[in-house]
Amino acid sequence: MDAEARIRALAIWRGPVEPVRLDGGITNHNFLVEDDGRRYVARIGEDIPVHGVMRFNERAASVAAHAAGVSPAVRHAADGVLVIDHVAGRTLTSEDVRAELPRVVELVKRTHRETQRHLRGPALAFWPFHVLRDYIHGLREGGHRFAQDLPRFSAIAERLEAAVGPTEMVFAHNDLLPGNFLDDGARLWLIDWDYAGFNSPLFDLGNLASNNELSPGERETLLTLYYDRPPDDALRLRFQAMLTASLLRETLWSMASELSSTIDFDYRAYTAENLLRFERAYRAFTDMDDA
């Protein structure tokens, strides 16, 4: 049964529906559904163990995030289908995130502070350095075209993990792309909880900064807003280590997707783009760490 047919067959609808495919989604397929005067987003996606995406965890995170007031309500979840309320508003761009940084950071802080209070049942951790090690093992076993670079990536990951050191733990989103923020005109929402899990808040902050091309000054503002104080050199170094780890993770994610994904997406180009960004971030980290 194809994705549209699976959505049409759901028993939750009050009448016949005609799903309309939405743009985006490189780990799932998203559809807009209208039923009885209301709009919903239906997400179709199976478990993706190579990326640590488990749909039971996405469901639990989505439900908890709604209870925390940061994400739309879940209306149905079963058999690789998640149906949530549609938010009428605009998807943020990187420019919007930078312009609305105080509102964005407040949403991230609320996510970290409140979501775990509502979480029920088993939940995953998302420790980026475990994720990196797992990708490296898989890429080596899969004979990836960058196999000769994997020992270097492994050594860099160890250096970054040592620089991060002991950390506090929150329930984090871990995929703060601009497209995962929605503005309904009155408030911001955070969507797409595929990679949610317990993690250091610094990963979300580094991920937010790298995904939205924050300038050095904006990164200072980001840390000041989140921690309610200007950052010192030690925090700047730990933040840069996590930012770099986030970009290495995105690079290896794309490399693994080259080997495993069936979604129509140019992963080779995405690998090249993120590899360049990672190398720039790592040079900045080494400059700070060696100073």
Model description:
The chain is of the alpha+beta class and 291 residues long. It has two domains: 3-85, 2-Layer Sandwich (Phosphorylase Kinase, domain 1), CATH 3.30.200; 90-290, Aminoglycoside phosphotransferase (APH), C-terminal lobe (Aminoglycoside 3'-phosphotransferase, Chain: A, domain 2), CATH 3.90.1200.10. It is built from ten helices and ten strands. It has helices at residues 3-8, 55-67, 94-99, 101-118, 128-141, 150-164, 201-211, 216-227, 233-260, 267-290, and strands spanning 20-21, 29-35, 38-44, 74-78, 81-85, 90-91, 170-172, 181-183, 188-190, 197-199. A five-stranded antiparallel β-sheet has the order 1-2-3-5-4. The chain has a three-stranded antiparallel β-sheet with strand order 6-8-9, with helices on one face. It has a two-stranded antiparallel sheet with strand order 7-10. Strand 1 and strand 2 (29-35) form a beta hairpin. Helix 9 packs antiparallel against helix 10 (267-290). The longest helix has 28 residues, at 233-260. The chain is globular. The mean pLDDT is 95. One of its GO terms (cellular component) is cytoplasm. This is Choline kinase.
